[in-house]
Amino acid sequence: MEKLRLGVLGTSGHYELRVATPLKSSLLVEPYAIASRNKEKAKTYAKKWDFSEVYGSYEELLADPKVDFVYLPLPNHLHLQYIKKAADAGKPILCEKPLGLNAKEAVEAAEYCKKKGVPLMEAFMYRFHPQWQRAAELVKCGEIGTVIATSGLFSYDLKDGGNIRNIAAAGGGAILDIGCYTVSSARLLMGAEPERVVGTFVWDPVFKTDILGSAILDFGNGRSSTFTLGTQLYPYQRVTALGAGGSLSIKIPFNMFGDVPGEITVINGVGERIVETEIIDQYLLEFDGFAESIINKTEVPTPVCDAIANMAVLDALFASAKSGKWESVAKY
Q1: For 182, which of 119, 152, 178, 237 could close a Cys bridge (C-beta 3.0–4.6 Å)?
Q2: pTM of the complete model beyond 0.85
Q3: What's the pLDDT at 36?
Q4: How far is CA 28 from the centre of its chain?
Q5: How many whole angstroms separate alpha carbon 149 and alpha carbon 129?
């Protein structure tokens, strides 16, 4: 079967670090076109990562009829703009998280793509990893009983003011960059949407972005999720779910390596065990999963309504940080 030709908007460091190598193993996706506003930079990138076509603007790439779908790893504040442009060009879109700067933008993007008949998916790669598939199965079958609480920790150390993650106007900051993961995983394990949230955040005096934060998501009936984030801390990540009959903990929940097994620690009345999952790259699974939905004309693996619901929680957390109170999560 002929592979789908991928167009990438921007010479992304994320694509280079985490996506380019796994895609070499794909039977469904072929890196085809790369675009940058600096064409010389794009040429160097194309030579390194085997793109056959190079464009000096994103619009030129979108006009190429041979591009079957696009990957959009641009800064957060550009997501909505280029989702619309890609949809106008009839290109299915795999967009990096978060889908927009707020739920309103996520809804606008979803409705625009629906009107144009173009598939759109938020790129939450962790959902494709076997360790998360297995964790969801363990919860569903009642291995740890009803999940009462989850906790998450996610941090890294980045003090470079020129990095897009530290630029407020571009949608930088901990909540949009990594808080989206802790919220998404909590919603997945709880199997529900939080009713209200409260959060407290520390803002960098120079960058004006949130660099440290903690939050509580209230799912009702005493069920809650907590998490702490940091962008100027020692790098660490962990997610734990506590159920009425046990617990499970994922050792590396988000930036999982592609060359070692996933590890879930499961504890219940029978005992404690380490569940190891398949050695496979989550980015390969994500891109192949999206490509397969295009080929088979089926729904995308992660529906856009999930992206909107996740963004609604992030909006409520920003509102809580401003008000200092519990804030309700809007329904869309």
Answers
A1: 152
A2: yes
A3: 97
A4: 21
A5: 22
